[in-house]
What does this fold into?
Amino acid sequence: MEQKTVSYVNQSGWNQSAYQAWTNRHGSPKEYAKKLVENPTDSVSHYLKFMGDVEDKKIANFLGSKGNKAVSFSLLGAKVCVVDISDDNRKYAMELAKEAKVDIKYIVSDILEVPEDEGLVDFDFVLLELGVLHYFVDLMPLFKVVCNTLKPGGHFILRDYHPVVSKLLNVEAGKLTANGDYFSKEVIEEDIAYSFLLSEEEQVNLKKVNIRRWSLGEIVTAISNAGFRINYLEEEAGVRWAFPAGSPKGIESSVPGVYTLIAKKEG
It folds into this structure.
């Protein structure tokens, strides 16, 4: 399946009730902004360990969804740009930024087709996180965009669900089983990520999205071949929320649920 077809399907999916889903999850933008202003480091503390002081730094958050990370970084003094395919996401994010009294730039576009005049260059950091790579049927074009966005010596931060969990593990009849296909390259149809935040009536009419899950080896190889030097890879323990509902208690201590990868643009 071609990327343009996948992107068209997924754009349609992500423009369905996303604003309502985020309101159900976090409250109105005004309510959520109050929480972020009170503690701007809370939602980005994991990344600040690698970024340090972000004041006056340029940060691009690709597929940045509802904008909470962007607003948090902006509250800490960074200059932030979000690129995302959903107008609904942008609406929530821009209202969130307004209520928090910060400025963020939000580009609604397929990340592979951002116009050159948007000035997506010379950034200190590019962040991708938690359930975004699977929207691409070829990782190399995405990572090339990331590389071109960064200034020489800039850093790419990727945090995502570990493929062992997303590709291999399932909960069936109250038991966790490793019955998935880790090496599958199939594009599959799946519910939109935020569907569970909506009412049953709203869920019935939701279009699905197309995804292709990647192995860790495929991800690492593509990043290495896109002009980066990988200098950090952590397979994280203790991340309970990364596992399917009903997973055995304590599984997060022995199986990685999430990983964080840091890569530096060479040159």
